[in-house]
Write a sequence for this structure.
């Protein structure tokens, strides 16, 4: 709400208003940077399991970081004027809203799917899909940063010949990204009928939500659960852990 003016640096407004909105836009980066730091620090010295949800989570951090760092470019009035309404804006927006939000959504979906459905999906296919989404996304939108910096405007149906190679790469990346999005739809639907039973705790977690059946009953637990362990007291080995 406080940074909307950075969309209007070329609208001929007051130079003082531009200064204020520029400062506010830079300040937004501070809490975003703190969040990226604590997400990363959470993994420090952790027993990381490279299952599909973690791949999406790490991809989310990387893509969201690129989106956030390019936001600093747009907070600068001088540079914003140069890349305003170009493909640089398109790339920045998608690194935040797709690279960030959709990667996080897919990670959460894969994490909770065994609890929701009571079935396990094909882990190999899920990892292939995660890699396909990551590669396809970057091949689609990273060239657009370069195109925008070189001055290619958005919302045009044609472009000069010198921009063709990067546009072809971006189009190819979009096709790869589409495959990456379609794969989860296929194997998740397949798992509903043919997937192995997930059990109550397929991830080996100590959270209470993993101590009820998959899928859970209407009120989650047939009776009030009794907690006999600490939040990070992971037993070894964990019965039913699929990793």
């Amino acid at each position: 709400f406080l940074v909307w003016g950075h969309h209007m640096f070329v609208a001929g407004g007051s130079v003082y208003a531009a200064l204020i909105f520029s400062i506010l836009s830079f300040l937004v980066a501070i809490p975003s940077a703190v969040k990226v730091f604590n997400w990363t620090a959470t993994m420090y010295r952790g027993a990381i399991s490279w299952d599909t949800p973690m791949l999406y989570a790490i991809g989310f951090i990387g893509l969201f970081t690129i989106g956030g760092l390019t936001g600093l470019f747009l907070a600068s009035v001088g540079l914003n004027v140069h890349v305003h309404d170009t493909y640089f804006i398109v790339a920045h927006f998608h690194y935040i809203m797709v690279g960030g939000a959709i990667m996080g959504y897919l990670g959460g979906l894969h994490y909770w799917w065994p609890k929701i459905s009571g079935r396990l999906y094909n882990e190999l296919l899920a990892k292939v899909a995660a890699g396909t989404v990551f590669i396809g996304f970057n091949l689609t939108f990273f060239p657009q940063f370069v195109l925008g910096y070189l001055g290619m405007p958005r919302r045009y149906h044609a472009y000069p010949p010198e921009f063709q190679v990067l546009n072809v790469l971006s189009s190819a990346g979009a096709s790869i990204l589409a495959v990456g999005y379609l794969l989860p739809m296929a194997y998740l639907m397949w798992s509903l009928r043919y997937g192995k039973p997930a059990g109550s705790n397929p991830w080996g977690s100590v959270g209470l939500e993993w101590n009820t059946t998959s899928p859970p009953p209407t009120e989650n637990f047939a009776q009030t659960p009794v907690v006999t362990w600490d939040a990070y007291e992971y037993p070894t080995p964990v019965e039913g852990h699929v990793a």
